[in-house]
Amino acid sequence: FPSQTVTGNFARVIHGLNAKQLTDQVIQRSKRMILDTLGVGLLGTSTEVCHKVAQYSKIYSSDLSSTIWGHLDFQLPPLYAAFVNGVAVHSMDFDDTWHPATHPSGAVLPAVIALSEAFPQKKKISGLDLLLAFNVGIEVQGRLLHFSREARNIPKRY
Fold first, then answer.
1. Bridge partners of 76?
2. Structural domain contains residue 5
3. Could you report the per-residue pLDDT of 125-135, keeping only the tens digit for each?
4. Is residue 8 in a domain?
5. Higher-confidence residue: 155 or 115?
6. Integer CA distances (angstroms), 22 to 10, 19, 39, 83, in order
7. Is residue 14 included in any domain, yes or no?
8. Count of the separate structural domains present in the chain
């Protein structure tokens, strides 16, 4: 038996990532991905599907809250804010993509922002922390996609 499992190795790599590993190129590309995702998400808040999930999510409450993009007066528990904002991004289908087909930022950024808003004021995270969390999320998604049999040969199947 190998001394380490795929899951254990995956967890060690992800846990070991830190802000010092973010090169200038990665930071610049991440900022562009984030800006693109926020723009598409803000536009997506006007879609019918976004309105429906926002109305549905209003039934949930918690002591912690995060903002629905484009609606500073509309806050939900972080899980549901991430859900609504993620739907807003995906509802436009203009968010970034990579091969094999997936939309990395639309799944990661809403969760990262919702969680960052939920931190107590005295423990707010820095912009660099947010960039690291975003990139860790993108890395996790990319590695899971790489391991997925479903992702293989997507262009040939569609």
1. 66
2. no
3. 899 999 999 99
4. no
5. 115
6. 19, 5, 24, 27
7. no
8. 1
Q: Tell me which residue range forms the domain holding 38.
A: 21-148
3-state secondary structure 80-147: HHHHHHHHHHHHHCCCCCECCCECHHHHHHHHHHHHHHHCCHHHCCCHHHHHHHHHHHHHHHHHHHHH
Given the structure tokens 């939920």, which residue do they identify? 118
pLDDT above 50 for 151: yes
- CATH assignment at residue 72: 1.10.4100.10
Which residues, 6+ apart, have CB-to-CB distance to 136 below 8 Å? 14, 17
Sign of CA dihedral 136, 79, 65, 36: positive
Question: pTM of the prediction?
Answer: 0.85
Report the pLDDT value the prediction gives residue 1, as an integer from 0 to 100. 43
For residue 7, is it within any domain? Answer: no
107-111, 116-120, 128-132, 151-155: which range is least confident on average? Answer: 151-155
Task: State the first-to-last Cα distance of the chain, in angstroms, to the nearest integer.
Answer: 38
